[in-house]
Amino acid sequence: MSSMIFLKRTSGDSSQFKILTDKLDHELKLIYGSSQDEFDQYNIVYNLNTVVIAYINEIPVGCGCFKKFDSSTAELKRMFVDVNHRGQGIGSAVLLELEKWAKEIKYSSLVLETGTVQQDAINLYQKHGYQIIPNFDPYIGNELSVCFKKIL
Questions:
Q1: pLDDT in tens, 58-84
Q2: Has this prediction a pTM greater than 0.85?
Q3: Using an 8 Å Cβ cutoff, are 149 and 133 in contact?
Q4: Could you give the CA distance from residue 38 to residue 31 in angstroms, rounded to a whole number?
Q5: Residue-range domain boundaries for the chain
C-alpha cells in the first residue's frame, strides 16, 4: 500500500520543518553520541527560502533544503525522512525536487556531507548519481564525514 507523497516548497521558518529537523537532530545524537556536538553548528540554517517538505495524508514525513555553497554550487542540508516512513521513496522525492529547484535558480551542481555510518543516506545519494569527493571545509580530516557532489 503506497500513499501519495505531496511535496511543498517552503522556508526554514516552517514549523513543520522545525519539527522534522528536531527529529533529525535527535536521531543524529543517537547515532553519533557526543561526537555529534561538533557537527551541530554546521546544521544551523538561517533565512533559508529553499526548503522542501514531504507530506503523506497531510502529515509531514520528510524534508531537505539547500543553501549557497559558491556561485555555481548549492549545498544540500537537513535531509530527513521519519523512521516510520522510510523505504517509500520519500527521500528520493525530496532529493529530486531539491535538484529541480536548484537548477531553476541556476545552480549547476550540488554538494553535501553525510555520516560514514549512515549507509541508507549514502545509498540514496549514490543511486541518484552523487559521486564521493574529498571532504570540503569544515569536514576536512573528519573521519565521520563523507562528502558528495553531483553536476546538475
A1: 999 999 999 999 999 999 999 999 999
A2: yes
A3: yes
A4: 14
A5: 5-151
